[in-house]
Amino acid sequence: MNTAKAHIKNFGCQMNKLDAALVAAALKKAGFSLCDDDRAADVVIINTCSVRDHAEQKVLSHLGNLKHAKKSRPDLVVAVIGCMAQRLGSKLLEHQAVDIVCGPAQIPQITQLISAALTDRKKFVAVTEDIRRADPNNAALEDFESLYDSDDKQIPSQAFVRVMRGCDNFCTYCIVPYVRGPEVSRPPDAIIEQLKRLAGQGVKLVTLLGQTVNSYQYKAGERTYCLADILEMAAGIPGIEWLRFITNYPQQKHFDPICRAMAALPKVCNYLHIPAQSGSDRILKAMNRRYTAAEYLALLDAARSIIPNIAIAGDFIVGFPGETEDDFQQTVELVRKALYKNCFVFKYSPRPGTTADKRLPESVSAEIKQKRNIELLAVQETISAELSAQFLNKQVTVLVEGPSKKPHLNKAENQNHPQLVSRTADDWIAVFNGPESLAGKFANVRITKTSPLTLFAQLL
Ligand code: 5AD
Ligand code: SF4
User: Fold this and answer.
1) What is the dihedral of CA 82, 88, 89, 90, to 10 degrees?
2) What's the pTM value of the predicted model, to 2 decimals?
């Protein structure tokens, strides 16, 4: 048993948050205690993201601080885990601060690696040699997945459950297939068992995770399961009230059954995150996205014809190599037509080893990327404002997350209670004044004011 104190710092997406929670659970099980302050820790674990250079720079600057900290605390053990660990491998050990490098497929070994580093004072690297040839049946990873149950959930009553790992799409800008490996769907019975255990622990909202979650496909004997089947089985579990799934790849395959499941199953939230990345067919082709802008919009139409009130969210990359002002205006046009609830806009960041980085020289300056980023967000803001305004004076059910970290101002409300952050089933953020005891519970609220991304509400 270990008694060391561990601090976990997480960067990146929901997948990483889930991995960080699994590592936290594994450490606790092995006797470690967790601490919020890295200055009090014997071990610092950094879960890293490689999707853009900016994310990697943040990790490197954090490692710079830890290098200084090690001068006065030479016994401190620093572990770098996640996508950057897989991408850079032993090169990361050259950094003076780093003792352990552990890739996403090796996280089941993390407690052993840390224990060994604490006693032997040696450096360790555990990454996958040839990740695109990784064994799809990684039993250790599958076992590790179930640890999550015992850990405290980051947001009360909410949990993330992975339904698949990796990605085979090879969008030319994207590092994910090279750091998370080939696409593998988890067995339906393992997913459903896990959901039942989570429901037993009081989880009300489950978000199913996959890089392209709508590609989920699992063959068991005669039967092939798709995501719609998982949703149907999950909706039958008492205690689970809301189900979401992220992120979707715009494709015909499995799309109709998934939309029909959403329409037929009240527990499946009417929310679809479906990144378009660009509105220009020329750029989509260069990105190796296998659809045109018209086909993408047709998918949204199809979804809306089945679920009229569906909330749709998207992602875009601006400044991809070769993107002209005309290409960008086609993206603006697509955003105007898509009527997203919200969208995330990223500036293209070349990732070493990807096809775009190898074959397509950067052609858009940092200034133009910034300008396009701001312009696209401004177009979306007007749309979000119009969509959120429809909530005014309406009553909605929300799931409360907890006290707001940065209270939004609504002076009209009484300020006696802390401000709570909550979300509607279709993922709109609603803030209202209420008792902290509501965290993790459903509440009925009336919307009193709206802004593009936030609904202001009153507890009923
Ligand atoms: N540069 C900028 N954005 C990227 N994304 C993925 N790779 C890159 C990159 N190289 C964005 C995509 C994806 C989101 C998670 O990150 O929009 O949907
Ligand atoms: Fe990256 Fe494309 Fe896979 Fe998404 S679908 S993880 S953008 S390669």
Assistant:
1) -140
2) 0.95
d(CA 196, CA 432): 31
For residue 101, give every residue at least 6 positions away whose Cβ sits within 8 Å of its Cβ, in sequence order, or none: 79, 80, 81, 85, 88, 89, 90, 92, 93, 124, 125, 126, 127
Looking at ligand 2, which atom is closest to the CA of residue 175? Answer: 1
Q: Tell me if 317 CB under 6 Å of ligand 2.
A: no
Kindly report, residue by residue over 317-331, the tens digit of the pLDDT: 999 999 999 999 999
Q: Is 83 in the pocket of ligand 1 (CB under 6 A)?
A: no
Per-residue pLDDT reduced to its tens digit, 291-348: 999 999 999 999 999 999 999 999 999 999 999 999 999 999 999 999 999 999 999 9
Number of Cα atoms under 13 Å in the Cβ half of residue 457: 29
User: 98: closest CA among 119, 72, 133, 70?
Assistant: 70
Query: Is-contact 318 372, C-beta < 8 A?
Result: yes
Tell me the sheet residues that pair with 450: 455
Of the CA atoms within 13 Å of residue 156, those in its CB half-sphere come to 15
Under 8 Å between Cβ of 198 and 161 = yes
Ligand 2 atom closest to Cα of residue 289: 2
242-246/395-403 β-pairing:
unpaired
Kindly give the distance from the C-alpha atom of residue 174 to the centroid of ligand 1, in angstroms, as a whole number.
6
